[in-house]
Amino acid sequence: MKAELLLDERHILGEDCFVEIVVWRLPRAARGSAHRYKYRLALVEDGECTLRYDNEPGKGDHRHAGGREFAYEFVSLDGLIEDFRAEVRARRQK
Fold first, then answer.
1. CB 27 within 8 A of CB 37
2. Are 30 and 55 in contact (CB under 8 A)?
3. pTM higher than 0.90
4. Residue 55: its pLDDT value, please?
5. 62, exposed or middle or buried, with CB in 10 Å at 0-12, 13-18, 19+?
6. Do residues 63 and 26 touch, judged by C-beta distance below 8 A?
7. Do 65 and 59 contact (CB within 8 A), yes or no?
8. Distances 43 to 6, 9, 21, 30, 52 between C-alpha atoms, Å
9. Would you state the pLDDT for residue 56?
10. What's residue 90's pLDDT?
11. Cα–Cα distance for residue pair 14/86, rounded to 1 Å
12. How far from chain centre, in Å, is Cα 51?
């Protein structure tokens, strides 16, 4: 089985703001992850990535916000996407 692209979306939120969601299903778990998804979910504002959830090989699941990196507990793909969307909504309401 080869890697399968599940999602590749870009949603424009404003003149200088968009989110990008890219998710692959892998034949086996990536190094550092306990699931078979490779993902990158990003909020880009004024040309700068201000929020990103990803799972780089060896680092496992984590998120970047405010110039810092935080562990992220992956439960499910739907949960990941909802957590990201909720954080985007909260940041955009400020």
1. no
2. yes
3. yes
4. 95
5. middle
6. no
7. no
8. 19, 12, 9, 23, 6
9. 86
10. 95
11. 17
12. 8
Grouped pLDDT means (10 residues each) for the chain, 94 residues: 94 96 94 93 96 92 95 96 97 85
HSE, side-chain direction, 13 A CA sphere, residue 82: 7
Of 75, 29, 81, the C-alpha closest to 53 is 81
Quick one: tokens of 77? 């793909």
Instruction: Yes or no: say if 83 and 90 are a contact pair by the CB < 8 Å rule.
Output: no
Please say whether the beta carbons of 3 and 27 come within 8 A.
yes
Q: Torsions phi, psi of 74, nearest 5? A: -75, 125
pLDDT on residue 31: 87
Q: CB under 8 Å to 17, separation ≥6 — which residues?
A: 43, 44, 45, 46, 92
